[in-house]
Each structure stands twice: as structure tokens, then as C-alpha cells.
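note to self — DONT lose this again. spent like an hour looking for the file last time. sequence + predicted structure for the chain T wanted, 292 res
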Amino acid sequence: MAEQQNSRWVPSMAEELGTFILVFFGCGAVHVAVLTGALVGLGQVAVVWGVAIMLAIYTIGGISGAHINPAITLALATWGRFAWRDVAPYIAGQLIGAFLAAVVLYGLYAPMLAQKEKEKAVIRGLRGSELTAMCYGEYFPNPGPLASSAGFYSPAEHERFDALVPAAVAFFAEVVGTLILALVVFALTDERNSAAPAGRLAPVFIGLTVTVLISVIAPLTQACFNPARDFGPRVFAYMAGWGPVALPGPRDFFLVYIAAPILGAIAGGGLYTRLLQPRLPAITEKDPAAVL
């Protein structure tokens, strides 16, 4: 019995490792872009996120299925493709993995974070420190342009910038982005879908989907689509001195980065399960006498 109970936690531990890989490389790319400028343009950061997804899936997919995202876990459970009893352990593993990745990244980049705050004349934990907190949690609009602009931080400029993306727009962007991601995940992992990529290439196309979604959505919301990716690092940022700038954050973080991805993933899974999957051709057994 004890062996069976321990084995049930193996997939959760795999989810922890997979989410660590995802967040370490993905948020690592954000650190590099914000703090060093070595990654030029949103497209380069998006590619790193896409490759990180591929690596995580290939690394742990055979053990846990590589959800690496609470929204995807909940969507799979909602539509009967995952057991509800395993949802909590999976999400726990995902959150822990994301948190630990943030810890490691902070250990690597702490001096550069402090230097960036000095350059922009912002105090960690006060308004304006979103310019470095964005390396962990997410904000809308994406504060990247403010972080990369010349000169000191301007509260007035920040207010004008925030007005470009109201909370309703950010919420809708995250719902749509995660809906598309879940739709693709459901389609590419359905054995009945003859159009799905062969040769275990589904992780590549899932990674590419994330890449193009980030390219479109990230200017608005930093492109979350994954509550663990946001919340785990956000908790760490709170503990590391960003305080209320990290949690609860200045603008509707729970609505945009927790509720919207979950709603979008469930909707995307439902769109595939209820509308598209029933239209697939029925599976027929091969005639053993047929010429191959």
C-alpha cells in the first residue's frame, strides 16, 4: 500500500520538474531581455518559451503527460481525460516547480535586478518596481517598454501606459490565448485525430503554438496562459521584497492570470471535445488480410 501511495506522487514530482524547466528557461529569457538586452525583440523571448515547452514535455511527458499548467490539468479533468483525484497533486507539483525556478533565477540575477532598479530610480515594493517584478509575475500592459526606455521611471508615463490595456481587455486576451492553447493540446494529443503530427512531434507543435501566442498576446499581458507560471514566481517575488507590487499586485492579477487561463482552457477543451472531436471519422480496425 505504501508503495502504491508513493508511486501516485511520482507524476506530481515529474510535473514539478517539468514546470521548473519551463519557468527556468521562460522566465530566464525575461530576465535576460529586461536586465541585459541580450534578447532583442519579443520574438526571441517567445522562441525561448516555445523551446522550453518542448523540452519540458519531452523530459517528463512519458511519466505524467506533461500538463505543466494547472489550467490544462483542470481542462483535461473537466472533459474526462484526467482523473479528478490527481488534480490537486499535479497542481501542487506545478506550483512548487514554478516557485523553485524563481528562487534559482533570483540567485543568478539578484545583482542585475538591483542595478536595474537603481538605473530606473525605483524602490522595490513600491509603484514602479513592476519594471523588475515582471521577471517573475506578470502585469498588463507588458511593462517591457517602460523598463527598456531611457531615463528614470515616470509615474505619469506609467499611468498613461496602463490606460492602453483595461482589465477587461487583458482578461479577454488571456481567455482567448489559453482557449487556443488548450484547443491545440486536445487536438494534438487525440489518438483519433489522424491529422495530428506523427513521430512524437506533438510537443514541437505545442511549443510553436505557445511561441506564436506569445508573439501576439505578450504586448498586452505578458502572455500567461498558465496560473502556475505566474503565481509560483509571484509568491517568491512577494517574499523577495516586492511585497504588494507582487501580491496582490496593482491590477486584477487573480482575474487576469488565474481565472482567465482556467476559463479559457476549459472552454478550449470543450470546443474540441464537443464540437470538433465528434466530427472525426470513426476508428475502424484494419483488415488483417489487407495488403500493407
